[in-house]
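Re: your question from the hallway

Yes, I did run it. Sequences:
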Amino acid sequence: MTGQVNHVTHPLVQHKLTLMRESSCASSDFRRLLGEIAGLLCYEVTRDLPVEQVPISTPLEPMMAPRIAGRKLVLAPVLRAGLGMLDGMLALVPAARVAHVGLYRDPATLQAVEYYFKAPSDVAERTVLLLDPMLATAHSAVAAVDRFKARGCTDIRFVCLLAAPEGIAHFHDRHPDVPLWTAAIDRALDDHGYIRPGLGDAGDRMWGTR
Ligand code: PRP
Ligand code: URA
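Structure:
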């Protein structure tokens, strides 16, 4: 199976991403823009959710109307930067449950180190939207998917802002069954595992740390 890559090229997404990339973009604007893009990505990643017809009554007459059916959603931000995508998604799917995945990249090895994981007890029956703005080496994304698969999840979708070609290749080498959505596919990784041209360290830019 080859992995599915969905490149979201909508002009609103691309415009807001350009504003975020600018090194002069303040943390407050960076957070707001990421939240807005997350909402737009949510629209795309949920595009194929099944619907069922249910009877309702408008003030004027009864009718059959569509309602989302099937698996319920879990939104799973990868800490810290994935948190910036959570509220934008929750604004559109307020009934979704939230799982938290605490991972950081060891700066020397670039391997993912887990420090926290908490998911709803019925996560295996749900569709998991894994949220992290950056797919660089993909070690973090692979580790996060490993975690959900170990809990029995079979419908996992990865949503990011920027992806490196090397990261996409590694991610789909390890998890070819997990489709991904990204707003941009950048040129390459540099020697420190940063996406180029990229936007720098997403967590630091979002929360004003260095
Ligand atoms: C960043 C980012 C991803 C990871 C991507 O997190 O949010 O989780 O790096 O890199 P990878 O694809 O090479 O694994 P970071 O480790 O900087 O943690 P932070 O969000 O807490 O700053
Ligand atoms: N994590 C980031 O925040 N930025 C990168 O370019 C790579 C990993």
